[in-house]
Amino acid sequence: MSLITRCKENPLIRPADILPSAEGYQVLGSFNPAATEFEGEIILLLRVAENCIREEGYVSVPYYHIDGPESHPAILRLRENDPEMELKDTRGVLYRGVDYLSTMSHLRLARSRDGIHFKVDDKPFIYPTRESEAFGVEDARITKIKDRYWINYTGVSKDGFCTMLAVTDDFVHVEKKGIIFPPMNKDVALFNEPCGGYYYCLHRPNNQGFGKSSIWIGRSPDLLYWGDHKCLLRPDDSVWEREKIGGGAPPYKTEEGWLTIYHSKGENQRYTLNTLLLDLEHPDKIIAKGSTPLLEPEEIYETDGFFGNVVFTNGMVVREEEGEQVAWIYYGASDDTACLFKANISDLIAHARG
Amino acid sequence: MSLITRCKENPLIRPADILPSAEGYQVLGSFNPAATEFEGEIILLLRVAENCIREEGYVSVPYYHIDGPESHPAILRLRENDPEMELKDTRGVLYRGVDYLSTMSHLRLARSRDGIHFKVDDKPFIYPTRESEAFGVEDARITKIKDRYWINYTGVSKDGFCTMLAVTDDFVHVEKKGIIFPPMNKDVALFNEPCGGYYYCLHRPNNQGFGKSSIWIGRSPDLLYWGDHKCLLRPDDSVWEREKIGGGAPPYKTEEGWLTIYHSKGENQRYTLNTLLLDLEHPDKIIAKGSTPLLEPEEIYETDGFFGNVVFTNGMVVREEEGEQVAWIYYGASDDTACLFKANISDLIAHARG
Asked: Angle at the Cα of A231 (from A227 to A232), degrees rounded to 5?
């Protein structure tokens, strides 16, 4: 087996497999899945991006009517020549002093026995119900800690993007816990057990105007309150990561260290994935990182799509196969579809150690 | 007495009153003081900005050699025509792949019996000793909580600006506690006692590219780990605050609510100060805010200086005078000097309720 093996069935989930969340909406992307195992199934929590079906003579944009548990999707439908509407490039409109985006995301569950063929829920699992989520919820991670499934995701609003925390025990009910990282911060990946009495997470502050966006690490006594932050890894000067980097799925504990797969944005807005190995007892210390990408966009579904040449992972499960620990690494391709590749844990560690 | 009374002795502290922190340095500004009372004195913790004395034919920039407790100020001195040097506008140089700023700040103590005539320490109290402080430490706040003096300040580095925490018991020794808010976040103001079992603070994330920088509120069980963040107050559309706003000194507990003075940046990069009153038990609820500024740059030391038309406060003490609670509001004028105005607490509350 080579270092990585893409699933022959890729893409596993496409926009056409998803029911829109409201009448008049259409699905543009079903990508960047969080992943975990639950009751014998692999569960993905997909980012589903939607816009409004085009109608001649009108501009229609999706929005959420935010009202706590009563929040619901809606459509702002305006005549193309409405003098009160101001088009803001292709990403949205300004109407009566309020911004609307042309595309909004929510989070949707998909379940599978074999990890390859998924049944996607008809309705959203996590959707905007708060001011800080008014422009959508994106890019979840699921971390199982002591039989509870902690979900963090990006909340987008007029105040920027921030990281929200939620928790579920059954993937039916979900309890939102609020903002754990204020703007501008995303790509949070929780460690699934404490080190030295503290939970840790990777996170990714936006330091626009100073350096390049880098991977930071923070810690917490309880998952809710975070501090003692440090910059862990900055992008190197390679063609693969000279623009920015960010954390991926929750780190996986191995005998040799915490293993995680992070994403890099390099030349020509091309994204790749790479390995990172952190010290078991002091996860703010780097043991090794891969010197070349683990996965680059090569297949047609990775190079072409809504946003081509993007591979991004935020979901990984590890299964025993023929005596080997095998990572099933779910990833988003081209901000469009959900895909899978596999690699042996031992090979991933060897890749990091380069 | 009018609503506010500027101290006749303003500016109280000028750059010329400060000894440079290293040979070859010169002091450009002594401003934005934190303030508290300690052993019968008013203590200010000033931001002192320095650059290098100009020398014909050379470009010299200050920097800190960062090495924990052994950290010390140094000078990078280059011939003007050094081909390895790249001038980056007036703010710094790039040399051998490393950025240097032309100006650096540290924090310096000043002490006074009468709150007006200050003796400034000869040496810095808090200076860069960590990677996250390599471009300087700025704009402290001091909050007395249970007989300890908690100091938060901005650490500037190539990774952006973030909020550092430290603590002192005697204003001789100081213990750094690390980063409590990762980039880009500043203007943190701690509440001096818990509400409902949690400490609160105001903070100011930078949400560049989305909305305008606003005042947020977060809470903590222990001052070290922070969460449950909410956007508290966004800039209004007035000429005074349409650019951005940020918190000032630690909020002061009154019978009618937590009173704080915040700063606004409005038209023409002009800064003003305003009042804000928060609910006593639920400080994430606003009771009132002033409808017009409390203090505008009017005096010559406020309109002219290193950066004219800037007034900024991060230090306030409250003293009993003739049966009235009087706020002594220390402030930076024109990013240049430290000044003082006074106002009755009852008048400040009335201003907020406006």
From this structure: 110
Is residue A191 within 8 Å of A208, Cβ to Cβ?
no
For B198, which residue in chain A has the nearest alpha carbon? A225
Q: What does the block give as tokens for A195?
A: 């080190």
The whole-angstrom separation of Cα A165 and Cα B148 is 32
Strands (E) across B113-157 are located at 119-120, 137-145, 148-157
Name the nearest CA neighbour of A265 among A285, A232, A293: A293
Please tell me if residue B237 touches chain A, with a CB cutoff of 8 Å.
Answer: no
Interface test with A, best of B133, B204, B228, B284 (most A CBs within 10 A): B228
Domains of chain B, earliest start first: 5-353 (2.115.10.20)
The span from the CA of A62 to the CA of A79, in Å, is 15
Contacts of B350 (CB under 8 A, 6+ apart): none
Whether the CB-CB separation of A309 and A270 falls below 8 Å is answered with: yes
pLDDT digits (tens, 9 = 90+) for B116-160: 999 999 999 999 999 999 999 999 999 999 999 999 999 999 999
A chain contacts of residue B162, beta-carbon cutoff 8 Å: 229
Residues of B in contact with A161 (CB under 8 A): 210
Q: State whether residue B68 sits within 8 Å of chain A by CB.
A: no
Q: What is A146-205 written as a DSSP string?
A: TTEEEEEEEEEETTEEEEEEEEESSSS--EEEEEEE-SSEEEEEE-SS-BTTBEEEEEEE
Which tens digit of pLDDT belongs to each residue from A118-158? Answer: 999 999 999 999 999 999 999 999 999 999 999 999 999 99
DSSP 3-state of B3? coil
- With an 8 Å Cβ cutoff, are A158 and B227 in contact? no
DSSP B234-282: ---SSTTTSSEEE--SPPEEETTEEEEEEEEE-GGG-EEEEEEEE-SS-
Using one digit for the tens of pLDDT, what is the confidence trace for A179-223? 999 999 999 999 999 999 999 999 999 998 888 999 999 999 999
Count of other CB atoms within 10 angstroms of residue B29: 25
Query: How do residues A76-104 score in pLDDT, each as one tens digit?
Result: 999 999 999 998 877 789 999 888 999 99
Alpha carbon distance A337, A47 (integer Å): 10
| Full DSSP string of B281-337 | S-TTSEEEE-SS-SB-S-SHHHHSSTTSS-EEEEEEEEEEETTEEEEEEEEEETTTE
pLDDT digits (tens, 9 = 90+) for A113-127: 999 999 999 999 999
Could you tell me where the beta strands, DSSP code E, fall in A251-323?
Answer: 252-254, 257-265, 271-278, 286-289, 311-321
Cα end-to-end distance, chain B, whole Å: 18
pTM of this structure: 0.97
CA dist B33 and B56 (Å) reads 34
Q: To which H or E segment does residue A345 belong?
A: helix A345-353
**What pLDDT band is residue A1 in, cutting at 50, 70 and 90?**
low
Q: Do B210 and A180 touch (CB under 8 A)?
A: no
pLDDT at residue B90 above 90?
no
Interchain pair A211, B131: CB under 8 A: no
| Residue contact B131–A229, C-beta within 8 A | no
Which structure tokens are listed for B187?
Answer: 């203007």
Q: What are residue B327's DSSP bridge partners? A: B318, B343
Side chain identity at residue B41, one-letter code: E
Closest residue, chain B, to A237 (C-alpha): B97
Tokens of B214: 């606003």
Whether residue A193 lies within 8 A of chain B, CB to CB, comes out as no
Cβ atoms of residues A226 and A218 within 8 Å: yes
